[in-house]
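Dear H.,

Thanks for agreeing to be a second pair of eyes. The structure we're designing against is below in token form, covering all 148 positions.
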């Protein structure tokens, strides 16, 4: 990969390796979300997709995630709706908005652990959806992640 490719290329110009490296591994995108029907506002819960390895903050079946979880929103340049519901800290979203990557991002820091040190990772903060019923999601709303 070219050095600081994210500063010279648009999302649509990135190759697959560059695109994948933008993921900081925070796990926030894998949290269940609720949408206010009246305002369209997105609210995050502390309930993670059952495929999220909540210790490593990585999908346990990344290559087949859409088959396993039909509601999984696959990020792509062509799927701007998915980018709109990503957390405000998401690199894909930041770059789409013309904003720089934060200092804690592994591409800047050179260290994957910087996401945890910056308190961005969901490690230790979430539970798997395997342990709750969908109707309980409103009881699990959090305010430490926003799309704004």
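And this is the sequence the design step returned. I haven't edited it by hand at all.
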């Amino acid at each position: 990969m070219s050095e600081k490719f994210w500063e010279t290329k648009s999302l649509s110009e990135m190759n697959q390796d560059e695109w994948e490296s933008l993921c900081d591994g925070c796990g926030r995108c894998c949290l269940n979300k609720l949408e206010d029907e009246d305002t369209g506002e997105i609210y995050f819960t502390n309930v993670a997709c059952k495929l999220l390895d909540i210790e490593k903050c990585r999908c346990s079946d990344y290559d087949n995630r859409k088959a396993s979880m039909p509601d999984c929103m696959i990020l792509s340049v062509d799927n701007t709706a998915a980018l709109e519901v990503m957390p405000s800290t998401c690199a894909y979203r930041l770059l789409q908005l013309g904003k720089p990557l934060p200092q804690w991002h592994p591409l800047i820091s050179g260290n994957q652990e910087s996401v945890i040190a910056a308190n961005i990772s969901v490690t230790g903060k979430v539970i798997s959806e395997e342990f709750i019923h969908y109707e309980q999601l409103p009881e699990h709303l959090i305010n430490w992640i926003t799309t704004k």
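Two observations from my side: The chain has a mean pLDDT of 93. The chain has one domain: 5-140.

Warmly,
E.
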